[in-house]
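Async update (no meeting this week)

Hi team, since we skipped the sync, here's where things stand on the single-chain job. The sequence we agreed to prioritize is pasted below, unchanged from the tracker. I ran it this morning and attached the output directly underneath so nobody has to dig for it. Comments welcome in thread, and please keep replies under the output.
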Amino acid sequence: MNNSKRRLRAMTAMLLALLLLPLWSFAFRITAENAAGTASNLDLNHDLDLGSDLDFGFDGPAALGAGVDFNAAAALPLDDLTLDDVLNVPGGSIHFEQEGDVSFVPMEFGDRTIAYLTGSAHIVLRFTVDMAANSALYLERNTYFRWINDHSELYVNGEAVNWLEEKAYMQAWNTYAYVAEQAGEYSFELSIGIGDGSYYHLDNFEYVSDPTDASLSAALNTSGGDLRFLTYGNVDFAAVEQDGRSVALADEFYEFYLCSAIRTLPVQLEAGDTLTFDYKVMGMAKHHYFCFYVNDQAVFFTPTLDNDEQWHSYTFTAQSAGTYSFEWMYWKTAYAEAASEPSLALDEIGINRPDEQQLVSVDEALNVPGGSIHFTSSGNQPFYTETVFGRTYAVSGARYTQYGSGTLAASVYLEVNETLSFDYRSNGGLEGYGLMFYINDVTYIDTPHSGLQPDNWSRLTFVAEQAGLYELRWVATHGNGRAMHIPLQLYIDNVSVESQYDQELSEALNVTGGSIRFYTVDADRFVPAEAEGRYCAATDTENKVNFSTRLMTEFIELSAGQSISFEYFFDFERYETSAGFSFEVNGMSQLSTHPNGANINQWLSFNYVVPESGTYRFTWRFYGTGVSINNSGRLLVDNVRIRAGASGDINHSGDVTVVDAILALRASMGLIELSEWEAEYGDMNVDGQITLVDAIMVLRVAIGLE
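Output:
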């Protein structure tokens, strides 16, 4: 059959499928009693003989929605099944009641029968279970939430249970376990609201009097430990031998929407007791996450993109006496790319382990070694500390769809030109979550809507223009009603008060005898370099296509008429419009250009004359957008110089007169030689020499034309 005929048959099949769409749900219920009293479904392929190339067996997401597994040839008496029959595991006796504008309906899903809810719907499912202490209720669900307001909440004895949002939005079959702390009758209420195009599947509710996994418990406990563990999710943890030790391992993370969870049965702790565990993340993968929960609240969380595949320890300290449940979860979101053997191993979980980590205070986590800044943490989701891969920092308590904020505050005294610096990072940047940073209530970082670039540390450097006490405030916020299943947190680290000036870089940039102090910021840097026959500053961007770096001076007091001059060089093979360069004075651009055919591979000069007396800071900014991947390059800067002034007042009389113009003219003709100080005022175009051009420019100023 040629291609045109194949396309015709395919189009015919699509049209017929669309025409028959209203019949599909009806066809699943059409049965014909045969002589033996059994039922058989309408066979669309047989009864609608439309050609051997057509197949009306609908069994996958492409047929009637993602995750729905229909098959028109299935033959089960679904209409005879009650909700109890569908939701219970074989032999289960839980009784379910539902209330709402629609109802769960039985549906064949592959080789199982499930309760199915779709379309615009709100429903409440209620049931009670008589549970022993440390027993568990398991259930399986498969959800797809298309809309912001889609939701599901679980209430037990009238109190909301933290579903842990990273599991609630798993678009795949996923097991959840609720563990009872004490014996009694437990009333469950599952409230669900979804819109058109969303769905909610439930199956396999099961009560288990002792959910302990003996093999995992043996692998995870420290010597003599008696903690009891259970596992659930859609990839179970399993006891294996690794690195010469018996550990719990979760792997097989090659499909979408996967998670593995280990949970302890409840334990009693006194204030000051600790729980310590070892963990090892393997396979550096984006959008894979590891989180440790205490009483269903996250206390330790890390993306796994930058893991070092080594064993590490983490310690939790109980702040008060009470009952504690601990949970460890490793999961992957739907759009994560494949990783090299991604997995998580846990081991040596123990109460009051002899080699436990010491609790690190917020001050210790945030200060650089030797730093003494005191921080306070407040808010309904305050900052706390954690140590990951050998780095300790403060992390915001805001996460997931919870509304709230956390604030860090500190006061520091800074001298003129002293610098305050810190590192900050986000593991995600969805709308409604971000970091605000203030100095004396002036905003320096504002990312509440667009967020930060995830997985990359950034650094902010503030230079004090005047001496005094500076009030610092970091605010992490979260919550705008948007349904999210990607955990988001903000990290702060390495807060320091020190001089950031680079002596070698300053020597490379200044003219001979110059004393301007420079520093460079951002991940990309300016560095001292021998280039183009001179010692200068060069960006480290030669082999990069996405970059951004700044070179900055200290604050400098200048008088009107003084000027700053410098030379720059675009070290590029050819023009590159995706790279840009700007020179800024107190944050305002005075020169903006990019490497083009007229300016690459040659030294160019620029001069800026100060319009009025005041304090000035100068910035050289070089960036690349990565539009072109074949022409990366670098910027060179040299001979930065503060001039006494190119005002034309050569004799320093206080005014520019014709006398100054005559002096410039005589100097240009070689009749007189000006002193270095006089030449600075007469070199109007800042080219390093006095010429007829300078004399004319001085004369124009003298007679009022400039």
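Quick observations from my side:
Residues 1-76, 481-485 have pLDDT under 50 and may be disordered.
The radius of gyration is 35 Å.
Reply here if anything looks off.
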